[in-house]
Amino acid sequence: MKARIFVTLKGGVLDPQGRAIHHALEGLGFDGVNDVRAGKLIELDLADGTSDEDIDAMCRKLLANTVIENYRIEKVA
Amino acid sequence: MKSAVIVFPGSNCDRDLAVAFEAATGAKPTMIWHRDTELPDDIDLIGVPGGFSYGDYLRSGAMAARSPVMQAVAQAADRGTFVLGICNGFQVLTESGLLPGALLRNAGGHFVCRDVALTVENAQSAFTSRYAAGEQISYPVAHHDGNYFADEATLDRLEGEGRVALRYAENVNGSARNIAGILNDKGNVLGMMPHPERVIEAAHGATDGKRLFDGLVEGLLARA
């Protein structure tokens, strides 16, 4: 079984990378971009039967720093 | 007076920190590899050095914070052993929960590598006893992720408890409230982005950092 973990900076946390991407998009002539926030996608290949609690613990203990980041777990069949 | 310096794969200020510890204590520190699960007995001072531990994978300091040796460092800190984390070491200490907050990418997006003026905010700590409160000093910085972040309640608590040890006199990285270095609640753990170990000898061009190590060691010896 696989899971995708989306890690994103919390609202209000400055994202210089997103801002640089935004500027680059504007430089390419894309004027309609209001904001850009960059995050991470982490794909896990897990043993069948891995519990939701364990996946959540992986996020809290390592994959995301909950001081600055949110995470969302998407299980892939 | 026994000291130790933790070495992670990718540390690159470990030897500089060892030189600074040796100059202040008169004895070579023990270098501790990240896979070690125990520290030698009766260590008084632990250094968590700068560098790019584990290549800054995932987040700066994230992997190092979960390495076996950091559990031993956390236990030692809990017993009152003094811990100094510099640059990547500060990132490791926040990632491991020994200090609050986090270090984000510099607000300007650039790696900043130069001397920076700092104000000594708390001169009562064991780490800053040889400085005067409000004194302006200069240490070099060299980092990409030095933008200190914590929620407002945490920042208020740090300020109220005198745990902001050092502030940038000019904000080079976007840090909340210009914070350059913070103490834990017991005052035995200091994390800071600037590098005092790079300014301890006349040959370095400046010696502002020497008083941090000398004052710390003097205080530790007086306690013993």
Automatic annotation (TrEMBL), chain A:
Catalytic activity reported: N(2)-formyl-N(1)-(5-phospho-beta-D-ribosyl)glycinamide + L-glutamine + ATP + H2O = 2-formamido-N(1)-(5-O-phospho-beta-D-ribosyl)acetamidine + L-glutamate + ADP + phosphate + H(+)
Functional pathway: Purine metabolism; IMP biosynthesis via de novo pathway; 5-amino-1-(5-phospho-D-ribosyl)imidazole from N(2)-formyl-N(1)-(5-phospho-D-ribosyl)glycinamide: step 1/2
Localization per Swiss-Prot or TrEMBL: Cytoplasm
Keyword Cytoplasm belongs to the record: yes
GO annotation, cellular component aspect: cytoplasm
One Pfam family matching this protein: PurS
UniProt keyword annotations, A-Z: ATP-binding, Cytoplasm, Ligase, Nucleotide-binding, Purine biosynthesis
Top-level division of the source organism's lineage: Bacteria
Any single GO BP term: 'de novo' IMP biosynthetic process
Coiled coil segments of this chain: none
GO molecular function annotation: ATP binding; phosphoribosylformylglycinamidine synthase activity
EC annotation from Swiss-Prot or TrEMBL: 6.3.5.3
Record text on subunit structure and interactions: Part of the FGAM synthase complex composed of 1 PurL, 1 PurQ and 2 PurS subunits.
Family per record: Belongs to the PurS family.
Main function: Part of the phosphoribosylformylglycinamidine synthase complex involved in the purines biosynthetic pathway. Catalyzes the ATP-dependent conversion of formylglycinamide ribonucleotide (FGAR) and glutamine to yield formylglycinamidine ribonucleotide (FGAM) and glutamate. The FGAM synthase complex is composed of three subunits. PurQ produces an ammonia molecule by converting glutamine to glutamate. PurL transfers the ammonia molecule to FGAR to form FGAM in an ATP-dependent manner.
Protein name: Phosphoribosylformylglycinamidine synthase subunit PurS
Native species: Sphingobium terrigena
Organism classification: Bacteria, Pseudomonadati, Pseudomonadota, Alphaproteobacteria, Sphingomonadales
Automatic annotation (TrEMBL), chain B:
Reaction(s) this enzyme catalyzes, per UniProt: L-glutamine + H2O = L-glutamate + NH4(+); N(2)-formyl-N(1)-(5-phospho-beta-D-ribosyl)glycinamide + L-glutamine + ATP + H2O = 2-formamido-N(1)-(5-O-phospho-beta-D-ribosyl)acetamidine + L-glutamate + ADP + phosphate + H(+)
Gene Ontology cellular-component terms listed: cytoplasm
Protein localization: Cytoplasm
PROSITE patterns: GATASE_TYPE_1
Record-linked SMART domains: GATase_5
GO-annotated molecular function: ATP binding; glutaminase activity; phosphoribosylformylglycinamidine synthase activity
Active-site residues from the entry: C87 (nucleophile), H195, E197
Single GO BP term: 'de novo' IMP biosynthetic process
Record-linked SUPFAM superfamilies: Class I glutamine amidotransferase-like (SSF52317)
UniProt superkingdom: Bacteria
Pathway: Purine metabolism; IMP biosynthesis via de novo pathway; 5-amino-1-(5-phospho-D-ribosyl)imidazole from N(2)-formyl-N(1)-(5-phospho-D-ribosyl)glycinamide: step 1/2
EC id: 6.3.5.3, 3.5.1.2
Keywords from the named record: ATP-binding, Cytoplasm, Glutamine amidotransferase, Hydrolase, Ligase, Nucleotide-binding, Purine biosynthesis
Pfam families from the UniProt entry: GATase_5
UniProt subunit comment: Part of the FGAM synthase complex composed of 1 PurL, 1 PurQ and 2 PurS subunits.
Function: Part of the phosphoribosylformylglycinamidine synthase complex involved in the purines biosynthetic pathway. Catalyzes the ATP-dependent conversion of formylglycinamide ribonucleotide (FGAR) and glutamine to yield formylglycinamidine ribonucleotide (FGAM) and glutamate. The FGAM synthase complex is composed of three subunits. PurQ produces an ammonia molecule by converting glutamine to glutamate. PurL transfers the ammonia molecule to FGAR to form FGAM in an ATP-dependent manner.
Matches recorded under HAMAP family: PurQ (MF_00421)
Protein name: Phosphoribosylformylglycinamidine synthase subunit PurQ
Species in which this protein is naturally found: Sphingobium indicum BiD32
Source organism phylogeny: Bacteria, Pseudomonadati, Pseudomonadota, Alphaproteobacteria, Sphingomonadales
Encoding gene (name): purQ
